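ESCALATION

Customer reports they have been waiting on this structure for their group meeting. Please prioritize. Original submission:
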Amino acid sequence: MWDLLFNSRKILSRNRYPWIDYARGICIILVCYRHIFGGVMTEHYSPTDHPVLSYINIFFFSFRMPLFFIVSGMFYKLSQENKGTSNFVRNRAQTILYPLLLWGTIHITLQLLFADYVNVVRQPADYLKLLYEPRSIEQFWYLNALFFVGVSYALISKYASFNTGKQLVLGIVLYGVAGYLHMQGIDAGFITDVFFFYFFFAIGDAVSGFMLDKKQFKNIASWKTLLLILPVFILLQHYFTKLNFDSSDDYYVQNTQPVLFAVAALVGGSFIICCSFLLQKSGKLKFLRVVGYHSMYIYVTNLIITSGTRTLMIRVFGIDNMYLVLLVGTIAGIVLPIMFYNIMTRAGAWWLFTLQKPRAIAMREEKKTIFRGLTEPEHKHVQEAIEQEKLKQPSWMSQVKTGRPYLKK
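Update from on-call: job pushed to the front of the queue and completed.
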């Protein structure tokens, strides 16, 4: 039952960069905390009533989203090598743009239907804002920026022949432009976020050779490295938090001091990455890997779950204990989306999250096509050959498809 709901056996058996899932798991938990905290503060409490919780909310604010872009950038070259530019763009549309449009539509529709219970006022025209003004649709700005950043990066790499160095320079320039737009209060819609986070994607691509090199594992998964970063991390995040706190604006540093934000984000991201490497080395807290693997599915459904949990606890059951609401809301916002995703996928409703069929389902359908029309002896012989060869030959399926190579003459 546990594996049915969380797919933990498959996830924990994967040995390819487990630290990535650890990092994503840590960050998505922080995202969930912020979502439930923001909802409760908006409707029922004031941040000044709970300074410690407010401090935690801002302290971990600078690096969460930039780190997602950095990690995505780290795998850009691998994706390009495996897919090519056209397939890379198609993949981004199927796995990022599609859930943005689908879940953004579901999200707005629920807010329109339950207008008396939500903290925002929605209009039918808001559906279009998912594409051009996603910041007004809660968390969906991230999917919008992630899609357009990745696609822009790929197209510029191919058609402008930009190597990693040129992309990094371009990222710095675009970051500067976004900083200017923020400081001048100019609303450029989704363009601002694309320019702003392009820099972090380029950083990820630039450091990918080092970060994905197994020879560097012992250097990064080191307590000495962590202890070197720790004091800088604490001082920077505290200063970042103080400035935002004093201005009563969580986005004060991001919108007015882009250089400080970039430094705080990169140091914070480095700290989380180092922690993730150490967790991989120790094999502890494996639930974070499960959470991280599902981070995208958690992200698209999280606010629906946390809003519903908050409304039930406060308005229906009359529970006004802030700490209990935060705890239950955060846990529900993580666990329920994971369970929902795995149940729906196993039920054949994988299309709720992506236009790409899960590999296991696609392979089962492909095998049915291959075996169709074979006699019983041929079917048996092909099946035996597949079982013998599939561990040796990753492309065994394509070989079977072309000319039935395993059939006896």
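Sent to customer with the following note: Residues 2-350 form one domain.
Escalation resolved.
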